[in-house]
């Protein structure tokens, strides 16, 4: 928990009270699914309507019940079977799925119970939102923000009937398009192969990775059902099973929606701010399998470095793209001897740094009825360092770092003429809770120094707060940086504020230099730094803005916030009321106007 007292977000920038009132709802829709009630307010399409009306009653997203009867998904038209055989197959598959969800593998743990996972603002929005005008309720949007802030996250197309994990929802992009001080919001699904197949079928078809295989009986049943669906022609796994729900990246003059279980999906924004999915991108056939959702682009060379990991050797494969978008050859790393959960990594001007943590694929966990991905407390975490341009893994060096488990890396750089690497990353203190009890996770940001000559690794915490989803000025990726902007877990995955850290302070000092709390009942997402003048080589590192989405759970209203990164209080310089709520999600990206024009 945050040890410092929270300051009210509303009282800090204090726009007129009439602007803080939630908008009245013209209509409501109510769905009952798997013994839960979902209530979704209709999108607000007229930002100029009267704001002096009394607040509307806060909406209820989920109400807990004890009955676990499976109920149909929200109205999604199913295609009419053309033959009696198709009808029989469809009926048989549906019956099998209901039996599995009800008797073999019901949602027995909170981490996979949709009534728990999809509560509050984690509940999905039930339809897409075309480009819709937003209202600026405080300050003004600076010219530096001409472009688009886009955030990715899970939003299941169908409300789940069986187990569901937070990581399993279909990817939905929420893009706020800014031009000349005006803003529009658009929310669209990434039209993955999975999304399109299930939309056409009218029901979930492809099993969820994190919640679909709980124990041997459930795994065998779902595996058999999946095989039956493939043989029946419902889907072809060769075309991809990914969700593209994790992050976004702009490189090789393309914008990608990413999820590490599939190829990247190329997307673009239209002039009006609409989001269009172009399709899976394999880089001229050179990327045949999945890749990380956290590639790193060197701002000086224009190269992009990436990797993939998997359940069979090689468990790690490193590769890069040159500045023209040409994918170079894979470097398989066989010295990673077990299938670890490797979500992120870091680069310097010379090296790439990987973390082999205590989360891995565990068959013994499945024998006990758990997920195939879990913690192994008997494993010693390691950091692996390989030259960026290595032709093979012979130059990979591994360093044991007991107790150091990172899901995300913030930045890294070289010191001592390349003999030392400095890594900044949040260390997950209770790794066993990462997938099952995220509210118990505490992430401590640490500065780690790796002496490549002596093999000695030293670590120092730079903040005692529960921090993750941290970013830097993108112009400093792989180079020595000073400032970090991190989300405050209260507890995770809810984010109650953002802090600014100065990592150049003493190794035993708390490095917090600025803080912004969103206020009671208000929670945000990952912050993102946007430089005031990215073309100015003399600009100070923190000369810019921190942006994010924030949701008020009491008013049922979402906002887009712009904060002054140099201000000691991260002062809010602009607040935009969004035409409907934006659910909590994962990672975002700002794309400047000149880059949008390249798409």
Tell me what the structure shows.
The structure is a single chain. With 599 residues, the protein is mostly beta strands. The chain is 11% helix and 33% strand. The chain has 7 helices and 35 strands. Strands 4, 30, 31, 32, 33 and 34 form a 6-stranded antiparallel β-sheet that branches. Strand 1 (28-33) and strand 2 (36-41) form a beta hairpin. The radius of gyration is 24 Å and the shape is globular. Residues 57-67 have a biased composition (Basic residues). Keywords: Dioxygenase, Iron, Metal-binding, Oxidoreductase. Its cofactor is Fe(2+).
Compact summary:
With 599 residues, the chain is mainly beta. Helices cover 11% and strands 33% of the residues.
